[in-house]
Structure formats: C-alpha cells, structure tokens
Amino acid sequence: MLTIEKIHSYYGQAHILSDVSLSLSPGEIVVLIGRNGAGKSTTIKSIMGMVKVTQGSIRFGGDELFGEPPYRIARRGIGYVPEERRVFARLTIQENLEAGRQPPRDGAPRWQVDDLFDLFPNLAEARHRAAGTLSGGEQQMLTIARTLMGNPGCILLDEPSEGLAPVVVEQIIKVIQQIKGQSLPILLSEQNLYFASLVSDRAYVIETGRIRFSGTMRELEENAEIRQQYLAV
Ligand SMILES: Nc1ncnc2c1ncn2[C@@H]1O[C@H](COP(=O)(O)OP(=O)(O)OP(=O)(O)O)[C@@H](O)[C@H]1O
C-alpha cells in the first residue's frame, strides 16, 4: 500500500539517501532501523514531501506522491508523528485531539476522542490540562493520539522511544500493538533493536543513506553479521 522505489534525497547539495526502496503492506509494522544519522528521519520526511527528492517513486494506495506538497500527502491519509512530538502547548489535551480531526477514510479505522481516551487512559485523566504541562512521554502519546484523530490509512512513527523512560516505552509498545490490532500499518523508525523486535514484523536496516538489509524481524535477529556491522554501537 505504501511503496518507495529507488529514491534519492538531498539537503541542499548534500546527497543523503541513495536508491532507498521499501514497502509497507496492509496491517504490517515495519521498522527502519539504523544508527544516529543513518537516514531514518530523512526517509520519513521524504515520504511526507518535506525533503527534496530528485528521483524515484513514492506511491500510496495507487497514488504517486512524488513532488506533492506535505499538506496534500497528509490529506491522502498518511499520518506522521515526528521525532520532536509537537503538541499545541496552550490547548488542553482534548482540544489537541479535536485539532487533529479529519473526515473518515474508506478502508482506514475510524477514531473518536473516546476511543483514544480508552487507548491512552493517562490522557483521559488529564483531558482538561494544557498539553504544555505534560511530560515528554505523555506528549509523545498525545502526538500519536492526535495523529490517529486524522483517521489515517498508515502511520509513520519517527523514533517514538527516543529519550523516554523504560516504563513509558512499555506503554508505547502496548499502544502500537493495539493499533496493529486495528490493521493500521505502521512504518517505524528506530535505533533500538529490542524495542523494534517487540512490535515489528519486518525490518529494513539503513546506513549512510542506503538500505543494507531487508527481511523479517526473525531473519534480522538471526543475522549477527548485519547486526554487528550496522547496528552495534
Ligand atoms: N537539515 C539538514 N541539513 C543538512 N543535513 C542534514 C539535515 N538533517 C539531517 N542531515 C544529515 O542527514 C543525515 C541523515 O540524518 P537523519 O536525521 O535522517 O538520520 P537518522 O537516521 O534519523 O538519525 P537520528 O537518530 O540522528 O535522527 C545525517 O548525516 C545528518 O547529519
């Protein structure tokens, strides 16, 4: 349903991604895994039209996204949760969720505020608080919940576990598993193999802007050479 073929991406003159291809099928959780600076965020931003892509193809549900502006890509049903967890700090949690609302989409799960409060009970308790007063982990949850309010057909999650305490990471794992239960596909970017292995079906390993491995999560876990070469710190 989301297919990227041989894209090349740049920041100014700097050639960051070369020949990156990957795909995401309905109901799948796929991880793009690699070290700091490997090109994970650039791949996700390329899909969202936020980075200059000079060649290749990015298709979603049969439509070509290459060259489209970010707002059009978002409206086509790709939900993007950036690394920086942007919330509207002065709005309450409930208002943040309302701000993410988009019409329902054929073939995509439909979310209401109450569904999201069921999925994120700690946000429900704090629904009338200003989002700026939440912890980093709660802001990450709110960003995911607000993205779901857009009734996306797939989600791009950029390093959701980064900088969060293990207990919060566990909550995020549970949420990802529940989203998976709704058959909503997720492309996850991650450095942490342990976190990735708990939620993902398949993996792509990226290093200096090139895909170095693709396979099932089990194949990656069994391939010590790839792990050693591209993932060990
Ligand atoms: N705005 C930018 N301008 C120029 N170069 C950039 C910019 N953003 C990232 N880069 C470079 O692009 C390369 C890939 O960065 P990217 O952010 O995609 O890495 P990443 O795999 O997501 O890692 P991280 O965990 O650090 O976010 C790095 O060499 C980085 O220095």
Question: What can you tell me about this protein's structure?
Answer:
InterPro entries: AAA+_ATPase, ABC_transporter-like_ATP-bd, ABC_transporter-like_CS, BCAA_Transport_ATP-bd_LivF, P-loop_NTPase. There is one protein chain. This protein is an alpha/beta fold. The chain has a single domain, classed as P-loop containing nucleotide triphosphate hydrolases (Rossmann fold, 3-Layer(aba) Sandwich), CATH 3.40.50. The protein has helices spanning 40-47, 70-75, 93-99, 113-119, 121-125, 136-148, 166-181, 193-199, 217-222, 224-231, and strands at 2-11, 14-24, 29-33, 52-60, 63-64, 78-81, 154-158, 186-190, 202-207, 210-216. Strands 6-7-8-3-9-10 form a six-stranded mixed β-sheet, with helices on both faces. Helix 7 (166-181) links the parallel strand 7 (154-158) and strand 8 (186-190). Helix 3 (93-99) packs parallel to helix 6 (136-148). The protein is globular, with a radius of gyration of 17 Å. The model has no long low-confidence stretch (mean pLDDT 94). The site of adenosine-5'-triphosphate has 12 residues, from strand 2 and helix 1.
